[in-house]
Amino acid sequence: MSGTQTKASPSDIRISNITAAFKQLFPATQISRANIGKLIGLSRFTTSEVTGEMVDNRILRELGPDNREGRGKRSQVLAIDTDFWRIVSIDLSNPKLAKGALADLSGRIVDRTELPADNGCSVEDVIGLCKQLIASTPLPILGIGIAVTGIVEPDGVVRKSVHLEWDELPLKAEVENATGVPTLVGNDTNAALVAERFFGDCSPNSMLISIGRGVGAALCLNDVIIEGSSSTAGEIAHVVVDPNGPTCECGKRGCLESLVSDDRLQERIAQDPASRTRILAEAGALLGRVMAIPTGLLDLRDISIYGAPEIVNAQFIDAMEDEIRRTMTTDYQKAPQIHRCRQGEDLTLRGQATIVIRTLVPTIHERGSLIGDA
Ligand SMILES: [Zn+2]
What we know:
five-stranded mixed sheet; 12 helices; 3 domains
């Protein structure tokens, strides 16, 4: 391994240089070594040292010299090495069907499996799925990512998941004990927004609103997912938006979830099919009105809406966009772009894999022996 720093004392500077170089290339960019140095503000020597180590550790690969004209040594073009490390990603957003996948270092899904869990998913089910995916590849596993519905503490304890019926469950610790692989547990809506940010249409200042059995949101500011002071940022389902609205499961009246969840809208449409267009347009407009204040407060560039296409349809999106534009636009502040999330069912799997990649890639050098063995 090149460089003067030893494996025993990884410095913060080393980690921050690796993070900065990786950020330029993730998920699928090709840049010459010289240009990476310019972009992240490092000297030629340090860039060479940092990227050389990343190539040795199979984070990056060399694609050959760039085709720049002129004299002097040509710089190697670098890209993410997708042939070595694998990430196990688990999506528990549907409590009756655990989805699992292997992803490469660019966040692409390379293999997948599913486990029906009619009586709800248990920790043993999750561990079994992880072990099955780990055994399915001869390649080394960088880490495991698990996306769950509900509130997850930074230490990987699922504080409360209503849909999975889990309370105070130390999921990260249990999976790490059983597999020996570093594990990151997070909220599924946050994972969805990360995927939309890196593979979809969201900018560094964006929000994703998920409309399913419940309603949830995730927030990204300056490319950082916001967890909040008690890990509950984005929990907007049971905020009262109409004090005279219908009674909600939680006991209050007129919660956002009681007015715009998939279940609630399907129920209303079933009762009055002729009013389908009006019901969806009203729901979109209500969501636009409710989200105008946080959108103006945070100066968001875009909002992605994730949900079934028959509910989150053109009428819903147009009504939301019209309402948010009407209520918040001024000479100096523009309404955000509202779009339907178009990434399909791998959204959460790819997002959670991306969280593992971005968190654990900077620490790969601490696993030097593993690289030699593989
Ligand atoms: Zn409620």
